[in-house]
Amino acid sequence: MNPTRLNDARSYSLNIPGKRLRPQLLEASARATGNDRAEALAGPSAEAIELIHTYSLIHDDLPAMDDDDLRRGRPTLHVAFDEATAILVGDGLQAKAFELIANDDELSTEQRVRLIARLAKAAGFDGMVGGQGLDIEATNKDLSLDDLKNIHALKTGALITAALVMGGIVGNATDAQLATLETVGEKIGLAFQIIDDVIDVRSDSSTLGKTAGKDAAAGKTTYVALMGVETAQTLAMELYDEALALIADWDSSADSLRALLGKMVKRDR
Ligand code: GRG
């Protein structure tokens, strides 16, 4: 028997593309290593990280989590189909991500194992899933700035950092380059999340004039609630500047990475 409904739901989730920042980051980072072939080789790993991201959004939208009806301007997967199907699509996309890298015979076995290990760590208990767990526990609690940074470093930052490091692995980056990419990821991941909070407040017309936003209304501590819109925006730009400074002496191969880091903080969606 062919699971038609599951296949339809999988197509639905993949046919509403988002900004594709993580695959673009992975490809730009591969190129930034200065290895001419790296960007062309990065395709399957880039696809894999976007599948992990897509799965995380599908599960995050479920009634047991954020209970959202809309994602990327369309009904969320569990609304368009049903909860069981949405859980299965998320599970299937996660498994598919690792299959894509394992079967990528353009890369060496060592590269594949390193990519799989890095993506698994970023997606799992020590990364996105762990951060989501902390985020759920923190709902309706007062958090310090350090608590908030720790949650987001895992929930959002881990996958963004993995994109950069995985690009480095595809490009056979040196240990020094990999360490730099790791730190760039930590800084831009945090900046990205702060800007997300700023966008949340600016786009939530119900909270005009207040420092709230949809997330704050859902009992979540946000950067904007802790420090106000202006300071949050300034902090994000400082982190972006610090990230750029780390790769200031990289040659023009890093230009697309520099441009992308800018896009991640100077965005309105
Ligand atoms: C359910 C295991 C599990 C994890 C969920 C990433 C995540 C953890 C939840 C997403 C909640 C959220 C909206 C966080 C804010 C930052 C963020 C990840 C925004 C969405 O990423 P974009 O802007 O999305 O890259 P698009 O739609 O462009 O792909």
Automatic annotation (TrEMBL):
GO terms for molecular function: (2E,6E)-farnesyl diphosphate synthase activity; dimethylallyltranstransferase activity; geranylgeranyl diphosphate synthase activity; metal ion binding. Its EC number is 2.5.1.1, 2.5.1.10, 2.5.1.29. PANTHER family: FARNESYL DIPHOSPHATE SYNTHASE. GO terms for cellular component: cytoplasm. This is Farnesyl-diphosphate synthase. Keywords: Isoprene biosynthesis, Magnesium, Metal-binding, Transferase. Pfam families: polyprenyl_synt (PF00348). It comes from the Bacteria. The keyword Magnesium applies. Belongs to the FPP/GGPP synthase family. GO terms for biological process: phospholipid biosynthetic process; terpenoid biosynthetic process. Transmembrane segments: none annotated. InterPro entries: Isoprenoid_synthase_dom_sf (IPR008949), Polyprenyl_synt (IPR000092), Polyprenyl_synt_CS (IPR033749), Prenyl_diphosphate_synthase (IPR053378). Its cofactor is Mg(2+).
